[in-house]
C-alpha cells in the first residue's frame, strides 16, 4: 500500500470533489460538495441542522465510502478514500464524535486511550508511553485509572480527544465539540486545539467559538457548499449568515476583523 | 440510590483489600462461597472462621459499615417467602437458620467483593480465564452503558409523566410500554454509533 | 426469583450449571455465526437496556424485579441466541454487582431465566407468530411468550428448590406458579406495548426477526427446545408425577426417611400441604390449563388492539442514521 511512502508535503491535506450521498429513503444528504483544505489549516464547518455536516464528516473517516453515488471523490493527503485503504485513512484522520459517550466505550480512561494505538499494533511500554503522552496533551495526566462512567462531560470530551490523538493522526475532524460544555470548558478546549498542529475541520454551531480558532470557514446548506472563505469575512456577512440559518456572532459586532 | 451502590468505593480508598489483585479476591470469593454452601452445618468452625474473616476484611477495607449493613438487610420478598415456607415445613432437610446464615454469609462476601474491586479488573480476570470474548465484551459494554441508559430512561419517564394528565392505570401502562420501547430504540442507535466509533479507531 | 446462595444444594446447583453452560455455549456459538460484526455492541447495550427497563418499572429498593423482565422481548428483536447471551450478561452482573442471585446458584438462575425463560418463551412466541400473520401475531406472541416465560421460569425454580429440599414441591410449586401467573401478566403486557412502540417508530428493527413463512426456525432453536425439555425432565417431571413429593415418597418406600437431619431439630408441625391437592391434582392441572388459555386469548386480543392497521406489517423504508448499516 503506497500510503506509507506518503509525500510529507501533502500530509494532512483534505480534498473533496463533487461528493454526493443519498440516504436509504432517497433523500440527498450531499449534493456535490467541493473544497480543499491545506495541511495545518483550521477550518470551521458551519450550517443549519440537516445541512449534511455530520454526514460529510463521517465520509472523511471512511465510514461510508461505498455509498458515494456519482463521481464524488475524497482524497486524504492525495490518496483516494476507498474500501481498500480504510485502515490507512483511519490512521490519518481522527474523528471526534458528537456524543463522547459513544466514543468512550472502555471501562477505564487508560484502556480507552490505548484502544486506538493497540489496533495499530503498539504494545507494552511503548503503548503506556503513548497513553501517558496523549493524556498529558489534554491536561488529564494521572487520570488513567479513572472509570469512564464517572467522568464529567468535559473530562469525557478530553479523554476522547486523547484517544484520537493517541493514534497520531495528521487530520483531526470534530463534530460539535462544544455542545454541552460550560464556558470554561469551551475556552479550555479551544486552547487545547490551538496547540495541536494537525489539520483541523470542526463542525460546529458555536459561532463565537470559531472566531479566533478557525482561520477559514465553510458553510454548508442543503448538502452544498454555499460559502467558503476567511472567517471574519464570512461571519460578518450578515445577509449570508441569516440566509443559511446562522447569524453574525456578537464577538464580531464589537471587533474589527483583521 | 442505584448509583449509591455501584462502585463508589473503588480505588478511592487505598485500603489493603482494595489493593489486592482481583484474581485473588475472586478466587477467595469462590472458595468461600463453595465451602459455605457445600459444607455441613455441623462444621461450625468453618462458618465461624468465615464470618471472622469477612469482618476483618470489611474493617480493613474502610467501607462505611452503615453502607454494608444497608446492603445486607435488603431481602427480596422471594427470599423471605422461601425462608418462611421452609420454617413451616418439617419434611425439608435444609433448616431455616442454616438457610439464612449461609445466604447471608455469601451475600456479605459478594458485597465486599463488588465494593473493593473495579469491574474492569474482574473482566480482566475473566479474559485470562478464557471466558469467550463475546461474553466479556457484552459484560463490559453493559457495565459501561448501564448508567447512560439509566439516565436516559429516567429523563424519558419524567418527561412522559409531566405530560400525562390521565390518572388511570391504563395510561401508566401505556407510558411504561412506550418508554421501554423508546429506550430500546435509543440503545440500538447508540450501539450503531459505538460500532462506528470502534471502526473509526481501527477496530477490525 | 433470583435464587441466593445456600438455597440449593450441591447436586442441584451443579446439574443446573451443567445444563445452562451447555445452553450459553450453544448460544455464543450461534451468535458468533449469525450476528454481523456491526451488531456486536448491541448485545451489551441490550443488556444495559434490560436492566434500565427493569428499573423504570420497579424502582424499589433492590431495583430488581422479582423476575427478569424482557427476555422474550429481546429474543423477538434479536433472536433467541442473542437473547440468551444478553440475559447471561444481565444475570451475571446482577449476581456480582448487586448480589442479586447467588454465585453458586448462577447456573440455576441462568437456566430459569435464560434458557427456560427466554428460550422457552421464544419458542412459544414463534408458534404464535407463525400462526397469526404479521405484526399482530408478533405482538400477541411477545405478550403470551412473556407471560409463559415467567411461569416456566418459576416452575423451574420451584423444581430446583424442591430437589434441594429447601421447600417441598407441594408447597413451592403452587406458590411459585400462582404468583408468577399474575406477575407474568405485567411482563407480557409491557413487552407487547414496548414491541408495538418499537414497531411504530422503527419497523426495520422489528422486521428482521419476522419468521419466514413456512416457519423455518433460526439455527439452534431446536437445540434450545431440547435443553428446555431436559431441564424440565430433571427438575420438574419427578415432582409432577402422581406422588406429589416424588423423591421423598420414593425414599420413604426404600426406608431412608427419618434418618435424622444432621444439625436440624425435628419440628413437630404437620407437613404443609395445600388442601386437597392429592385428590384434586387433576383439578389443579385443569385450572392451570384454563388459566393458560385465558392468557392466550388476552394476548391475541392485545395484538388486535395494539396493531390498528394490519398493513403496518409492511417494512417501511425509514430514514435511518447514516452511520448505520455500513460496511466498515
The count of domains of chain C is 1
Helical stretch tally of chain B: 10
What coarse outline of chain C follows from CA principal-axis ratios? Answer: globular
Radius of gyration of chain B, in Å, reads 22 Å
What is the makeup of the main sheet of chain C? none
Strand portion of chain B:
under 5%
Q: What are the secondary-structure elements of chain C, in order, as H or E?
A: HHHHHHHHHHHH
Question: Which CATH architecture of chain C would you pick?
Answer: Orthogonal Bundle
N-to-C span of chain C: 42 Å
Strand content of chain C: under 5%
Q: Which parts of chain B are unreliable, with pLDDT below 50 for 5 consecutive residues or more?
A: 7-11
Which pair of chains has the greatest number of interface residues, and how are they split between the two chains?
B-C, 91 and 99 residues
Report the structural category of chain C.
Answer: mainly alpha
N- and C-termini, Cα separation of chain B: 38 Å
The count of β-strands of chain B is 0
User: How many separate helices of chain C?
Assistant: 12
How many separate domains of chain B?
Answer: 2
Give the beta-strand count of chain C: 0
Shape descriptor of chain B? extended
Descriptive account of the structure:
The complex is a heterotrimer of chains A (258), B (204) and C (328). Chain A has 258 residues and is of the alpha/beta class. Chain A is built from eleven helices and ten strands. Chain A is globular. The termini of chain A are far apart. Chain B folds into two domains: 125 residues, no CATH class; 69 residues, no CATH class. Chain B has ten helices and no strands. The longest helix of chain B has 32 residues. Chain B is extended. The two termini of chain B are 38 Å apart. Chain C has one domain: Orthogonal Bundle (Arp2/3 complex 21 kDa subunit ARPC3). Chain C has twelve helices and no strands. In chain C, α3 crosses α6. Chains B and C meet through α3, α6, α7, α9 and α10 of B and α1, α2, α4 and α7 of C.
Amino acid at each position: 500500500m503506497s500510503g506509507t511512502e506518503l509525500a510529507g508535503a501533502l500530509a494532512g491535506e483534505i480534498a473533496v470533489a463533487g461528493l454526493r450521498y443519498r440516504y436509504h429513503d432517497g433523500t440527498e444528504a450531499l449534493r456535490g460538495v467541493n473544497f480543499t483544505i491545506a495541511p495545518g489549516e483550521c477550518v470551521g464547518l458551519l450550517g443549519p441542522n440537516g445541512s449534511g455536516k455530520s454526514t460529510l464528516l463521517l465520509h472523511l473517516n471512511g465510514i461510508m465510502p461505498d455509498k458515494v453515488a456519482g463521481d464524488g471523490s475524497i482524497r486524504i493527503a492525495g490518496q483516494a478514500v476507498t474500501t481498500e485503504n480504510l485502515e490507512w485513512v483511519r490512521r490519518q484522520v481522527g474523528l471526534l464524535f458528537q456524543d463522547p459517550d459513544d466514543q468512550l466505550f472502555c471501562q477505564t480512561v487508560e484502556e480507552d486511550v490505548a484502544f486506538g494505538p493497540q489496533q495499530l499494533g503498539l504494545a507494552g511500554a511503548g503503548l503506556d508511553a503513548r497513553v501517558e503522552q496523549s493524556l498529558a496533551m489534554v491536561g488529564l495526566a494521572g487520570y488513567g485509572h479513572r472509570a469512564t462512567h464517572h467522568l464529567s462531560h468535559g473530562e469525557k470530551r478530553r479523554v476522547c480527544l486523547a484517544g484520537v490523538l493517541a493514534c497520531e493522526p495528521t487530520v483531526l475532524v470534530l463534530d460539535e465539540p462544544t455542545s454541552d460544555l460550560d464556558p470554561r470548558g469551551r475556552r479550555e478546549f479551544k486552547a487545547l486545539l490551538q496547540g495541536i498542529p494537525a489539520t483541523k475541520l470542526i463542525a460546529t454551531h458555536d459561532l463565537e467559538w470559531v472566531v479566533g480558532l478557525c482561520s477559514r470557514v465553510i458553510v454548508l446548506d442543503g448538502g452544498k457548499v454555499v460559502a467558503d472563505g476567511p472567517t471574519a469575512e464570512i461571519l460578518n456577512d450578515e445577509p449570508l449568515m441569516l440566509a443559511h440559518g446562522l447569524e453574525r456572532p456578537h464577538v464580531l459586532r464589537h471587533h474589527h476583523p483583521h | 440510590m442505584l448509583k449509591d451502590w455501584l462502585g463508589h468505593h473503588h480505588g478511592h480508598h487505598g485500603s489493603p483489600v482494595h489493593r489486592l489483585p482481583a484474581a485473588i479476591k475472586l478466587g477467595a470469593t469462590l472458595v468461600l462461597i463453595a465451602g459455605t454452601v457445600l459444607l455441613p452445618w455441623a462444621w461450625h468452625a468453618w462458618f465461624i472462621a468465615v464470618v471472622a474473616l469477612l469482618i476483618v476484611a470489611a474493617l480493613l477495607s474502610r467501607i462505611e459499615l452503615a453502607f454494608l449493613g444497608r446492603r445486607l438487610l435488603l431481602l427480596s420478598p422471594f427470599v423471605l417467602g422461601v425462608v418462611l415456607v421452609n420454617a413451616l415445613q418439617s419434611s425439608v432437610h435444609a433448616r431455616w437458620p442454616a438457610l439464612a446464615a449461609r445466604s447471608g454469609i455469601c451475600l456479605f462476601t459478594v458485597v465486599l467483593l463488588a465494593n473493593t474491586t473495579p469491574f474492569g479488573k474482574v473482566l480482566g480476570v475473566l479474559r485470562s480465564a478464557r471466558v469467550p470474548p463475546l461474553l466479556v465484551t457484552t459484560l463490559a459494554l453493559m457495565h459501561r452503558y448501564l448508567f447512560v441508559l439509566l439516565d436516559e430512561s429516567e429523563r424519558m419517564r419524567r418527561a412522559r409523566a409531566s405530560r400525562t394528565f390521565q390518572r388511570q392505570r391504563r395510561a401508566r401502562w401505556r407510558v411504561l410500554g412506550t418508554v421501554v420501547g423508546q429506550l430500546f430504540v435509543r440503545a440500538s442507535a447508540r450501539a450503531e454509533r459505538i460500532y462506528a466509533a470502534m471502526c473509526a479507531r481501527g477496530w477490525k | 426469583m433470583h435464587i441466593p446462595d445456600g438455597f440449593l444444594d450441591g447436586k442441584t446447583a451443579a446439574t443446573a450449571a451443567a445444563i445452562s453452560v451447555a445452553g450459553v455455549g450453544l448460544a455464543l456459538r450461534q451468535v458468533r455465526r449469525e450476528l454481523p460484526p456491526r451488531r456486536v455492541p448491541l448485545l451489551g447495550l441490550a443488556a444495559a437496556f434490560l436492566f434500565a427497563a427493569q428499573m423504570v418499572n420497579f424502582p424499589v429498593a433492590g431495583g430488581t424485579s422479582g423476575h427478569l423482565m424482557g427476555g422474550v422481548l429481546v429474543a423477538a428483536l434479536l433472536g433467541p441466541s442473542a437473547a440468551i447471551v444478553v440475559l447471561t450478561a444481565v444475570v451475571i452482573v446482577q449476581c456480582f454487582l448487586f448480589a442479586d442471585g447467588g454465585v453458586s446458584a448462577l447456573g440455576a438462575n441462568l437456566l430459569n431465566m435464560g434458557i427456560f425463560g427466554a428460550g422457552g418463551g421464544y419458542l412459544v412466541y414463534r408458534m404464535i407468530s407463525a400462526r397469526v400473520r404479521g405484526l399482530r401475531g408478533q405482538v400477541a406472541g411477545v405478550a403470551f411468550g412473556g407471560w409463559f416465560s415467567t411461569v416456566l421460569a418459576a416452575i423451574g425454580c420451584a423444581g430446583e428448590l424442591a430437589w434441594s429440599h429447601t421447600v417441598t414441591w407441594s408447597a413451592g410449586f403452587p406458590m411459585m406458579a400462582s404468583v408468577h401467573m399474575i406477575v407474568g401478566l405485567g411482563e407480557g403486557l409491557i413487552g407487547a406495548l414496548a414491541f408495538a412502540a418499537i414497531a411504530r417508530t422503527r419497523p426495520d428493527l422489528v422486521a428482521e426477526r419476522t419468521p419466514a413463512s413456512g416457519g423455518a426456525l433460526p439455527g439452534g432453536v431446536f437445540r434450545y427446545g431440547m435443553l428446555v425439555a431436559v431441564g424440565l425432565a430433571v427438575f420438574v417431571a419427578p415432582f409432577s408425577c402422581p406422588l406429589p413429593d416424588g423423591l421423598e415418597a420414593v425414599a420413604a418406600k426404600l426406608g431412608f426417611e427419618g434418618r435424622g437431619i444432621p444439625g436440624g431439630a425435628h419440628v413437630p408441625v404437620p407437613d404443609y400441604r395445600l388442601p386437597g391437592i392429592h385428590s384434586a391434582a387433576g383439578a389443579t392441572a385443569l385450572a392451570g390449563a384454563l388459566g393458560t388459555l385465558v392468557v392466550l386469548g388476552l394476548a391475541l386480543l392485545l395484538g388486535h388492539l395494539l396493531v390498528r392497521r394490519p398493513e403496518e406489517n409492511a417494512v417501511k423504508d425509514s430514514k435511518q442514521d447514516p452511520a448505520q448499516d455500513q460496511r466498515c
